[in-house]
Fold each of these.
Amino acid sequence: MTGDLPAFARGLCDDAAVFPPGLAPLADAVPAHRRHRSAPYAALVGPLVLPATALDQLHALLTGDPLDLSITAPNGPAQAARAVAAAADLPVDVRAVEVAVPTGMTATDLLHGLERIDVPVFVEVPRDDRRPAIIAALGESGHRAKFRTGGVHANLYPAPDELAAAILAAVRAGVPFKATAGLHHPVRNTDPETGFHQHGFLNLLLATDAAMHGADAADAAAVLADRDAASVAARVAALGDARAAFARARFLSFGTCSITDPVTDLAALGLLSASLLKEDA
């Protein structure tokens, strides 16, 4: 018997095992995802995130219940539409597509390109001067945003003030969002191997909560920059289920290449039961 997860953790982690730095082979990622979805911590686990190019290899790996997928389309809306059409011939449930915005594409052209897609869409908002117009367009159209929070190079990690501004813009426009890459730990830290300053996914949750309760960009950036793990964990615990669920209505999830790492880290902070990692829990 595992009991219910607290509201802040439900559906928090999308399974991005095939992406860097994990780079799990697809033949390993699919059965591992099914194990995660039947584990004691299953309520924390979102869909398996796969690139559109992986769909051709997927059919031979699928048995049993339909596989929940989120499909990434780095080449833009046209690739996303083709991927959704291709997935219709597979035993999968496409929960979302995650669409990048090609260089030079305007917000108007983006929305036009998304018209053929009939599943929820996350748009990876570019880190350039198109960002305000695209977030505004997402708010008007009902689509969702995706913010890149890290990667394999230091310049892929937005500074706290940049990420805070993006969160505030999404909150004010009524746009739900997810985050991708670089969120390897709950609390902001510096990776000892790369020296990259990594955002914490709990910091991101708290910054979203702050933005939804009137914080300005400077306040939200300060929350994102907080490295005091005990303080951050205490603030998350103090949210309670109702306030946490309110924040999670905007910050929907983040992609992680290791589902068990966030569970382990949250248990170490006292926010989840360690029994969730036991096979017989």
Amino acid sequence: MTVLVASDLDRTLIYSTAALGLTMPDPVAPRLLCVEVHESKPLSYMTETAAALLTELAADPAVVFVPTTTRTRKQYQRIRFPGRPAPYAICANGGQLLVDGLPDRDWRRQVAARLAQECAPLEEVHAHLLATADPAWLRKARIAEDLFTYLVVERALVPDEWVKALTQWADARGWTVSLQGRKIYAVPRPLTKSAAMYEVARRTGATTTLAAGDSLLDADLLLAADAAWRPGHGELADTGWTAPTVTALAAAGVLAGEEIVRAFAAAVARDAGR
């Protein structure tokens, strides 16, 4: 019996300083482990307890732990989880499947063929974002892995009407819009974490799939898994999104990450009859 554990990273397993949500008194705040450094500065954290639990989980021979993220390969490779490196990782929202750290070319070709058939070109969507975004709140515009595009914005200044209009425009062209912190993503609808998860399950012979995530871009992953969890923060929590196989946690911030790893471990133990 093999259990595949596919978890989103940012604001699910790992947390920036701004996303930690340390609302408790300082003397009882959890000890933190830095798992990402960028430009010589600490960037992302887990609680030490979550890191220890994840190390134990990933070392279980019955478990295939698959980090699953919208990050590019370069952004993902900055993360250093404790324990042995994950044999598989899903990056670029399912557009890149890494096997022992290297991109799987066959998977990338399959993804490219689907996108060409089912949605408007990346160049058209990126140009529309640049043409309609207001310089007053736009800070950066990026294309990720030649697969999707996103803006870095001053969130408080972005009109809700603009996001709604962009969502409608993109939907008619086969694209999805997701707002995550200071980033607004436009992602082709066929570009999904769930499709890549199914591929890893096929290759590993996994009989059970578990998942976690906090954003709209994680919804397909959570629905595809046999059991899934979402934290008490993020896009999905803000909209009250849930499903029969998805557990909506009350915990928010970095403590939600710890609770998610505990839930994974408990589910693996139940599946193995331990």
